[in-house]
Amino acid sequence: MLRTLTAGMVAVLLLSSCASSPIERQPIEELKPYVPTVELSDSSEFSDLELCRIKDGDPELTNMTAGFPIPEGRIDLRTGANVHIIGVDFVDKSGGPTSPQDQNQIYADSIQSFYEAQSSVPLEFQWNWYPEWVTMPNSINSYGLGGDFFAGKFDGNAYSNFAQALINIVDSKTDFSGSNFLFIVFPKGITSEEIGTFLVNTQTDYLTDEGSIPNLIMAGGDYVDSDTYIHEFGHGLGLTDIRDTTDIGNQNSDGMYYDMMNNPTYPELLVWHRFLLGFLGDSQLHCKTSSDPSTHWLIPVASEATGVKGVVVPLNDTEAIIVESRRPIGYDTRLEGNPSLIGTVVYTLDSKIPYHRTPVKVVDVLGLEESVEVMGYSFKVIESGAFGAVIEIVKIQ
Ligand SMILES: [Zn+2]
């Protein structure tokens, strides 16, 4: 059951992150050759996924989504991220003797490791490092980039103008062909007064001689850590924030407790996000459209195995109920400290919920023999083990 959902789950990422040390993925012990003993429904009944491609229903947001399709300009990692990384310093703030790549390789590695671990299919990353610091001609404070986003002092135009000015400086010396993400990084030791906000921008095309770049990260403020990079990179893939961002300073969890787009504590992506991004193998999702009772074996969503990771029950074009299994493995080992979030998670998706509130909300976290009713369906865990869980789904009205 869902019991105490407290302080540790308050999400803090938007253009920022908590300052915790980056969580590392723990090696996953292969699932033991245990399999469920109860009778399972025939998987072929749930293999037509078309009705489960829940549409994007947000009336306002056009560059990120909780539903299909992924907006144009966002990156499909199956065909590849092509990232250009440019280190920038200033006449009064030197990058020092180590190169931008030396200072920032860890973030590229963290992003690639995280997303590769989320995917059951191969992903492509190409990292293009500008070899030396590009020194801007004026003082760091002259560019108007200071001021913490969380203090309401963010000036988006100043960031966009800065990015385009930088591109104009390096364009003749850089082949941006195929580039779909630009990272601008700064020397260590920058203060929030100098560059206040860790920005991701997916709403502006940055123009180069070889074409436009639709996604930008500017790594400013006190928030330069791997968690922030991984979260903001998720926006470049088209994912939206799945928490309450209306209160800039607090960013309440809003009924969701998992996934890097909610918080970095339990960052394994929801099975819904994996489906949206094309990260699942052909048979790893069940789409339940019939009203007959059914039983489904779900392996933990963080597992490296190739079994079914989730069931989607579509309710209409923009709403669904989704089920997955969460265990303290992979990037989710911190779940050990919060047993109430370990188990079979039943959550709702309503893609019409506009940006700033989460479109996915946990209904309940079920242990063995526990059940919950939601929107005309009953969900019950009828078997549980190292293999994951078996869930019985019954339409009740
Ligand atoms: Zn965000």
3D structure, described in words:
The protein has helices at 100-118, 156-170, 226-236, 271-276, and strands at 81-90, 125-129, 134-136, 181-185, 198-201, 206-208, 211-213, 216-219, 285-287, 294-298, 310-314, 319-326, 343-350, 360-366, 371-374, 377-385, 388-395. By secondary structure, it is of the alpha/beta class. It has two domains: 36-60 and 270-395, no CATH class; 81-236, Collagenase (Catalytic Domain), CATH 3.40.390. Strands 1, 2, 3, 4, 5 and 8 form a six-stranded mixed beta sheet that branches. A five-stranded mixed beta sheet has the order 9-11-12-13-14. The protein is elongated. The structure holds zinc ion. Residues 13-14, 231, 235, 241 line the site of zinc ion.
Describe the structure concisely for a colleague.
The chain is of the alpha/beta class and 397 residues long. Helix content is 13%, strand content 24%.
Total beta strands: 17
Bound small molecules, by name, code or SMILES, are: zinc ion
Question: Helical stretch count?
Answer: 4
Q: CATH top level of the largest domain?
A: Alpha Beta
Q: What is the correct CATH architecture of the largest domain?
A: 3-Layer(aba) Sandwich
CATH third-level topology of the largest domain: Collagenase (Catalytic Domain)
Q: Any idea what the radius of gyration is? A: 22 Å
Mean residue pLDDT: 90
Query: What portion of residues belong to β-strands?
Result: 15-25%
**Unreliable stretches covering 5 or more consecutive residues:** 1-20
